[in-house]
């Protein structure tokens, strides 16, 4: 008698969760290389507001628990960790304005802000880890780490400081320029922002050379010119008829 043999379903591959660690910083500390900073930025993609960069030197004996890439954390968790980082670590923050972004391009403005954040640290670091592919202009040894905010603990801390600092600033800009919803979307090109941009036109806080902003400005200028032409024609008609 032949029995039916049920095939077992293949086991699902386990998802490996990678958390940032202090391994690289600790290795340098053992060599007598300290301070060691991590730096990251927030706000490359938005249509409005500055790029905000942060540099953080963690206290090896007092590292906040739960540090991670800011994008993986809830807003409330970021806010709580921001307060802990500011209370236990050395940090510096720098801003690249929309005008600088328009002048230099987003990459150069971001690298400039990262270098400024490192330079603003209370004690000059001897080694800097920076998130991404590009090194920055600094007197310290600099190491670019792709995906660093998910790998290097000091970069993760910097990502949180940069993100929270920028979010808070965008809420203040929302009070200065109401109607765009900066306090909600923080300047990113979500439908709510695009609708406001098309209705109100760009504000002084928008990045003029970003394509959606430039397109909205062109539309509003065209409408203004058309309105001016119609008004001029109306005046001429009145003068001629008189």
Give the strand order, joined by hyphens, for the main sheet. Answer: 3-2-1-4-5
The CATH topology of the domain at 23-185: Nucleotidyltransferase, domain 5
What proportion of the residues form beta strands (DSSP E)? 5-15%
Q: What is the CATH top level name of the domain at 23-185?
A: Alpha Beta
What gyration radius follows from the Cα positions, in whole Å? 25 Å
* Overall shape: globular
Average pLDDT rating = 90
Report the order of strands and helices.
HEEHEHHEEHHHH
> What's the main sheet like?
5 strands, mixed
User: Which class do the helix and strand fractions yield?
Assistant: alpha/beta
User: CATH superfamily of the domain at 23-185, please?
Assistant: Ribonuclease H-like superfamily/Ribonuclease H
> How many angstroms does the end-to-end distance come to?
112 Å
Can you name the CATH architecture of the domain at 23-185? 2-Layer Sandwich
Tell me the number of strands. 5
Unreliable residue runs = 229-242
- What does the oligomeric state look like here? single chain
With helices defined by DSSP (H or I, 4 residues minimum), what is the helix count? Answer: 8
- Share of helix among residues? 40-55%
Keywords: Cytoplasm, Endonuclease, Hydrolase, Manganese, Metal-binding, Nuclease
Family: Belongs to the RNase HII family.
Function: Endonuclease that specifically degrades the RNA of RNA-DNA hybrids.
GO molecular function, one term: RNA binding
